[in-house]
Amino acid sequence: MTHWQPDISKGSAPVYERLIAALENDVRDGRLSPGDRLPPQRELAHRLSLSVGTVSRAYVEAERRGFISSHVGRGSFVADRARPQAVPLDTGPLDMAHNVPPPDFAERWIAEGLLRVRQRADLATVVNYAPPEGLSAVREAGASWLKRRHGVMRAAAEHVIQCNGGQHGLALAFAALARPGDTILCEAATYPGIRNLAEHIGYRLSGVAMDERGIDPEALARCARETGARVLVVIPTLQNPTTITLDAARREEVVEVARAHDLMIVEDEAYRLFADAGVAASFADLAPERTLMVAGVSKAVVPGLRLGYLLPPENEDVRDRLLLGIRAFGYSPPSLGGLVFSQWEQDGTADRIADGVIAECEARTRLATTILGKAIAVPGAGRSLHVWMPMPMLDAERLSARALRASIALTPPEGPIVDAAAPSGVRLCLGGVRSRDTLEQALHDIAAMLTPTDVSAARGLV
Questions:
Q1: Under CATH, what is the fold of the domain 94-102+350-449?
Q2: Bond into 241 cis (ω within 30)
Q3: Care to name a GO molecular-function term for this sequence (predicted)?
């Protein structure tokens, strides 16, 4: 039997709830293991100066949530299901090619989060098709998340639409605003998923020149005139791949050009949660009449939920086309993952995961900056899932090949390039490597690859 001494001193919740929370925390953090026998209720009540009834209520509720199992005559034990199965550490080529959050934080909370979803009174709603815009509880959670964590003042449950992740959101946005064969403007180097989508459907991407502050407004106006395009897709915060974050003045200039040339803006805000304090207002708030925001929970919470949100412009016709697209491509958004996030938004689990991911990304960004120094561009925030190494395309291809020979997979250098004048380089994704120590070694390996090798011995070869 374990001599478990839970800490219930903090918080304003009822004592029995604090006792359950302490149990869950100690299981999650490894202080209690599956199979450990818990102290008898009377003994623990005496040790904590509580009534036996309070401890009994906590044990009963913990068993109902699946954290303990009780056996008459034997006692109460930490349940095997209370802790998710450990995932192996990094094996095979190290993944620095995919922009995903470090997984430890979601894995730590997944079991508890799902147990709480099981108790929801509206759980049965996931059995049937949802409305095309999503269940009201899911949309309320999305509006709250966009307002609290993305700082989007216009977000409201009656406005947001649930979609199946950010990529699905981009597909719906493009389908609502353009037809195959139409030109869509984007940054000259952009998220590879935008390129894939355009190639699959048949949109023509036209890359707009960038400078050190991001997309160039003069070049944007010129491209709009020359192509006749009516849609611009832009990643304004920690741009993928360059990590540039548009400042307030540049965003105002982009809005001015969009209004002058009647451009609809598709705002991909996948990384806004990682922005520094005081980041400029979103296009959704700056130009609500012409901005369709796409945001998801994949980058800072859980990619596997495949949950995203659309915030349409103040235009009922665009909203109707988005809902028609949902009906056409999937009939309705999946409800179970949305309900999981709704619960996590209510009970604070989503914040706990996101805060952990953001803190870890800050440490990893600092690590990359320390090891690679001036070889990377200054990130557009103090924490990022990726960093950008500007270099000529030939050098980028050589580095990518060297890294792969060293079992480090990097984003293909040509993946983000839309225009020949685009900034070239290598995107290093920092979240896919599970261990920070392993990431540190990989960054040192990459730094060593940047050092020119001594070729003097080969000069006499013919």
A1: Aspartate Aminotransferase, domain 1 (3.90.1150)
A2: yes
A3: DNA binding
